[in-house]
Amino acid sequence: MKLPSYDAAARDVPEDRSHRVILPRRSPKAPLRQVARRLMMALLVLMATVLIVWMDREEYHDNANGSVDFLDCVYYATVTLSTTGYGDIVPYGDSARLLNILLITPLRVLFLIILVGTTLEVLTERTREQWQLKRWRTALRDHTVIVGYGTKGRSAVQTLCATGLPRDRIVIVDPSAKVIEAAVAEGFAGVVGDATRSDVLVRAEIQRAHQVVIATQRDDTAVLVSLTARQLNKRANIVAAVREEENAPLLRQSGADAVITSASAAGRLLGLSVHSPSAGTVMEDLIQQGSGLDLIERPVVKSEVGKSVRETDDLVVSVLRGHRLIGYDDPDASPLQSADRLITIVRAAPTEEPDAAGRQNRSRPSSLPGTGVSPMRRANEHRADE
Length: 386
Description:
The chain is α/β, with parallel strands linked by helices. The protein is built from 12 helices and 13 strands.
């Protein structure tokens, strides 16, 4: 599905639909189905009332001719349930009056509830939405804001979800209402509006966000969004994508912590795949989280402090020491320090199936067959060591 351009959609946003926060919710039933269901319930109540009056018709009196036939029963039930009560047909017997008290009066109340139910639902819908929005704003902390839900934005969200980020910790910002509706249907909260405006980002609670991903279609839009986001949140980690490499320095000056040049990155991957298709496949596997091999950043565990990079169980690519990124072959990378962070290649955690006893099977081989080399740990095993 091709999504509309971010900037083109921003110009077409109606004023009454902009700056709205849309939270994920259960799919509502079709309006016609709801109306038909309420009508059926009302008809069932009416038929039950007619049946009660018909069975006890001898205890009713018609001022017109004294007797009550089936049409009179339907007429009496209709005017009774609608609380009209003309008084031309009345219950004069004790049993008829008792049935009116015990059965017809509750049916009258039920009939009115069914009729006004739709009106009450409309009146309370706005209040419920405001209450849910207030509770959502209160609970939202250290979340991730995704600006632009096109191809790049969707891919970024898929990667974040694959690394374990819950869907309720992601907020999508896009000027297209249709795009936001699609995001909400997938379980994300969405804000309709132009992210270059500070009030739109404030609605996404960006001032309390932990990280911001800018995936707009135009580089100039990305610069404006980065400036606005950095002004509202000084501590957030901002990652942005640009199409032209010459715009990357400008985006870094605008407050982005990391800038990805999408066109150049795709070109490098294409060139690598032409030279070595297998190497291109491995690179694509590394950047696709959740399957095959994953490239992750993790802290140094206690058992690794003081050891060499090559003595770790994982395949270490680089060591992050402070703000310095050290290659695995650099002599300064070893020995490892407790404050270091490692960029490693690990196996993606497979879907674990319960064993016969109902426990999750977390076993793995102690070494790779025929090599005697300890296998790389899965991404989720580092959390247990820390």
